[in-house]
Design goal:
single chain, alpha+beta, 7-stranded antiparallel sheet, about 20% helix
Amino acid sequence: MKRQLESAGLAWETVEEKVRSGPPDAPKFEKLIFRAKGYSHLGKRGDLLLWFHTGRLMETIFYPEDVDGYLRALKAEGLAIPNMPADHVAVEIAAMPSTANASTGDHTRVRLGRDTEQRVYVAWTDRRLQREYLDWINAFA
């Protein structure tokens, strides 16, 4: 993935990297999060965070520079996020729900939210990997 970003001319940085060990019979645990600035999705630029759990992509978080334009582009692609106003352009970000969720199939959750710095993001999460991650934390951390 890093090579793909680099070949697209994008700079990336490691945000977090952890390897934890549990009991000898515990499954492997590795966490890697990295960021690519200036990534483009649906013609909109922003920051992209990729979160890997044991070498598998668990979550993708996109912080679009043009939130309204990006939400319109998502809608044009057929992705509707519940609780998101139909015409987001007229809505102040402060009035937006802190998180709105949708599903794209059985194992993917899509959410619109704001981080602690009030930056708006859209995240795609693999529910199975997230459950595996949380199960490991609960059992061995």
